[in-house]
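Re: that chain you flagged

S.,

Sorry for the slow reply, it's been a week of failed gels. I finally had a moment to sit down with the sequence you sent. For the record, here it is as I used it:
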Amino acid sequence: MSQEKRQFQRIAINLPGELVFNGETVSTQVQDLSIQGMRVRLPATPRSANQAVTLTFKANAESPLITVKGNMTNISSLPDDGESVIAGIQLTHISVEDMSQLRRLLLLNSGQQDLDTNELSALLDQIAKAFN
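Prediction finished late last night. Pasting the structure tokens below so you have them in one place:
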């Protein structure tokens, strides 16, 4: 039986963004996100996993910009689209302000009133375990 590795609920979303890696900026679509990572669709040019990236996106036109840093993981081609790939991004850094905006975006799109509290508690538990 396989065990789910994700501890945080992913929310399906479709937001435009920009991904920066190796000094290159490409347009991307954020397809889903969680408090610990996200999945993006980007042009199918050569990429490698474990590459450091910076992703910026907005919840809507009036929202502040959210900036996250992470590592690109799980790059896979789309069978019906030779022009795009899907990549996971595991977060490695996010500012307090951006974390607040990300949590708000997750809460508003989850439909669950207690998502924010549960996921924050799980994230704090993970941080505490890392220090032990």
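What I noticed first: Helices lie at 96-110, 115-131.

Talk soon,
D.
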